[in-house]
């Protein structure tokens, strides 16, 4: 996994007091000439594109946040055009998080926050004027970097993968931290290696806990017993994130959490499904084997309203960070016909999650108020991942979380 920060070597991802920037495009930094040379084959094409477009840096310091966002976005299009392919994740982060003053957006920004090393300033005056504001997100930004550094050096061998849930636990509790305690883990809140592992763990378990949340709310699951031995879930409009999710882990967690559950069927339906497939998951652990538990993950590429009538009736419908509102009123609005189907089953909860409260409210706004009842009104998701992600848009919250906000509705 590759990523970009202006405060670490772009090759080895380590911090250093003597970072040198690429002298052509001035975007990536390196700890040594040797590391720059080693990275050159990867960086070469984009470096030329950045240098050719020239526009980069041609924005007046002191512009508004809105203008600077537009400027960054324009750069991304120019770079992509020049390089003739989609930008990779780390390359995207280069236009998203350039080394500029957080106050005036000047590219002459040599003062870097020593704690998070994620923000820069052109002068002490600007750093001081931003101190109070930055203090709110500085520790979280530091955690963003620590998580990235850990993920790029370690495979998932952390021992929490073999999880065990306390059999005495009767419900998920108030939030993710309480639930994860049922597996014997607590958040040390101390920026140690242990905490970074903990935060990464929450990212993996959060989807499973999110699926259980509406099922416990509607008492489909009560005291870790389900109303019926099979649960059917429709995950609508999955993106790269949901395609990549560890569905084996999610399904196994469900099996361990719900004592009488014999089968979990997950249908991922959307235009961004990576490939059509039906995977049967047979779990090898003694607990799952003893009850002959079977998990099924079916991936269907297409629109929900075209397929919903041909698959088993859901017990839960979920849209993870789907952005229902995004193409509203445009020709590309693929959600229009699917919206009524999302709340088409009486007694079945529909859960929507989003990165921000504003986005979530717009998403929920697509349902006719007269057609739905709220089980959970749009709010901060108690079962959101604890892993912070940097937000590139200046002027909004500096970080966001996967499924950071949640709403649960049912058909009226
Ligand atoms: Zn290096
Ligand atoms: Zn370069
Ligand atoms: Zn400045
Ligand atoms: Zn900081
Ligand atoms: Zn198991």
UniProtKB/TrEMBL annotation:
<dbReference type="GO" id="GO:0008270">
    <property type="term" value="F:zinc ion binding"/>
</dbReference>
<feature type="domain" description="MYND-type">
    <location>
        <begin position="9"/>
        <end position="47"/>
    </location>
</feature>
<dbReference type="Pfam" id="PF20179">
    <property type="entry name" value="MSS51_C"/>
</dbReference>
<protein>
    <recommendedName>
        <fullName>MYND-type domain-containing protein</fullName>
    </recommendedName>
</protein>
<feature type="domain" description="MYND-type">
    <location>
        <begin position="101"/>
        <end position="138"/>
    </location>
</feature>
<keyword id="KW-0863">Zinc-finger</keyword>
<dbReference type="InterPro" id="IPR002893">
    <property type="entry name" value="Znf_MYND"/>
</dbReference>
<keyword id="KW-0479">Metal-binding</keyword>
<dbReference type="Pfam" id="PF01753">
    <property type="entry name" value="zf-MYND"/>
</dbReference>
<keyword id="KW-0862">Zinc</keyword>
<dbReference type="InterPro" id="IPR046824">
    <property type="entry name" value="Mss51-like_C"/>
</dbReference>
């Amino acid at each position: 996994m590759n990523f970009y920060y202006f405060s670490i070597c772009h090759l080895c991802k380590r911090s250093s007091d003597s970072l040198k920037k690429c002298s052509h495009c001035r975007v990536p930094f390196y700890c040594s000439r040797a590391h720059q040379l080693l990275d050159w084959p990867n960086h070469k094409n984009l470096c030329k594109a950045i240098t050719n477009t020239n526009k980069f840096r041609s924005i007046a310091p002191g512009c508004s946040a809105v203008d600077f966002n537009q400027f960054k976005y324009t750069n991304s299009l120019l770079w992509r055009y020049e390089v003739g392919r989609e930008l990779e994740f780390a390359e995207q982060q280069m236009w998203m998080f350039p080394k500029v003053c957080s106050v005036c957006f000047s590219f002459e920004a040599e003062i870097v926050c020593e704690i998070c090393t994620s923000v820069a300033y052109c002068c002490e005056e600007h750093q001081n004027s931003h101190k109070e504001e930055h203090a709110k997100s500085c520790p979280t930004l530091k955690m963003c970097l620590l998580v990235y550094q850990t993920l790029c050096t370690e495979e998932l061998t952390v021992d929490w993968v073999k999880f065990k849930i306390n059999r005495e636990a009767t419900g998920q509790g108030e939030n993710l931290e309480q639930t994860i305690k049922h597996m014997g883990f607590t958040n040390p809140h101390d920026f140690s290696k242990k905490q970074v592992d903990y935060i990464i763990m929450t990212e993996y378990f959060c989807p499973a806990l999110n699926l259980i949340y509406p099922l416990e709310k509607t008492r489909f699951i009560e005291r870790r017993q389900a109303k019926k031995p099979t649960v059917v879930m429709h995950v609508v409009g999955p993106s790269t994130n949901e395609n990549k999710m560890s569905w084996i882990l999610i399904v196994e967690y469900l099996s361990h959490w719900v004592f009488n559950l014999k089968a979990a069927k997950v249908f991922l339906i959307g235009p961004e499904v990576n490939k059509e497939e039906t995977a049967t998951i047979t779990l090898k652990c003694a607990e799952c084997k003893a009850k002959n538990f079977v998990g099924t993950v079916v991936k269907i590429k297409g629109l929900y309203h075209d397929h919903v009538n041909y698959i088993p009736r859901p017990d839960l419908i979920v849209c993870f960070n789907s952005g229902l509102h995004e193409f509203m009123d445009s020709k590309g609005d693929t959600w229009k016909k699917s919206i009524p189907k999302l709340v088409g089953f009486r007694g079945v909860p529909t859960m929507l999650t989003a990165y921000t409260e504003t986005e979530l409210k717009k998403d929920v706004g697509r349902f006719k108020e007269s057609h739905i009842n709220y089980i959970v009104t749009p709010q901060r998701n108690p079962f959101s991942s604890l892993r912070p992600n940097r937000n590139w848009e200046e002027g909004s919250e500096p970080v966001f979380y996967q499924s950071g906000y949640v709403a649960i509705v049912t058909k009226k």
